[in-house]
Each structure stands twice: as C-alpha cells, then as structure tokens.
Design brief:
about 130 residues; about 10% helix; 10 strands; about 45% strand; mainly beta; three-stranded antiparallel beta sheet; five-stranded antiparallel beta sheet; Jelly Rolls
Length: about 130
C-alpha cells in the first residue's frame, strides 16, 4: 500500500504549474499537480499513456477536441492515449491528483501560447507538423 497526504506534498510556482511525482508503480506514476490562478497547460497528448485527473480542490476548465468541461472538486477526468488536451486553471489555487499508466509517459506538445519562452522540440514538430 502507498498513501500520501496531498496537502503535505503540494508545491507552488507563480510562473507555471508544478507536477510533483510522488511515486512510480509498475507501469504508472502518481502525482500531485498544483496550479496557481490562471495557469494553463500546454496543448498536448501522451501518445502511449492514459492520464487521469481527480480535482481535490479549486478547479478550472479542461479542453479536449471539441469538448470543454468544467473541472470542480470531485471531478474525475480520463484522457486515453493520444488525446490532445489542455487544462486552464480557474481563479483559485487548484490541487489535482494525477495518475498516468502505460509505461511510456512521453508528452507531445502541439503549442503552449501562455509560455512565450517555450520552444517546441524536434520530436514535437515531427508529431505535430505545421
């Protein structure tokens, strides 16, 4: 058994969200993700991993394809492998619990307009050709 106190593991950064990987278990990992008001993830996917979020406190908006859903405390979101998605945090700090599984957690970023210093990797350009 593995147990964590998410509040004790939280970490915050005003420039970008913080993903604190708490542990790895076989083909997966567990993470506490901390978001300051208004922070936005890159528009990205995990080609070979499922990603699951549980909203512990706070919330925002999750976008995937033509779907936009509110993320509120108690919300549970599942992104299957390869699903392009983006999270935008709301007006309060948010604490999300994330589980990824599938062995290969690589991320392919299509764009990240809210981080002007971000430069796409060669792998990202190959995966999402302009």
């Amino acid at each position: 058994m593995i147990a964590y106190d998410l509040k004790a593991e939280e970490q915050w950064d005003p420039k970008r969200h913080v993903e604190n990987i708490l542990d790895t278990v076989e083909d997966g990992d567990v993470t506490v993700a901390c978001w300051e008001p208004g922070q936005v993830s890159p528009n990205h996917c995990h080609p070979n991993a499922t990603e699951i979020y549980f909203c512990f406190e706070g919330g925002g908006t999750m976008r995937a394809g033509d779907q936009t859903i509110p993320v509120t405390p108690g919300a549970f979101i599942v992104h299957p492998p390869g699903e392009l998605h983006e999270y935008e945090n709301g007006p309060e700090r948010s604490l999300l619990f994330r589980v990824r599984y599938g062995g290969d957690f690589s991320t392919r970023i299509k764009e990240w307009p809210t981080q002007p210093d971000y430069e796409r990797s060669d792998d990202d350009r190959a995966y999402y050709p302009d």
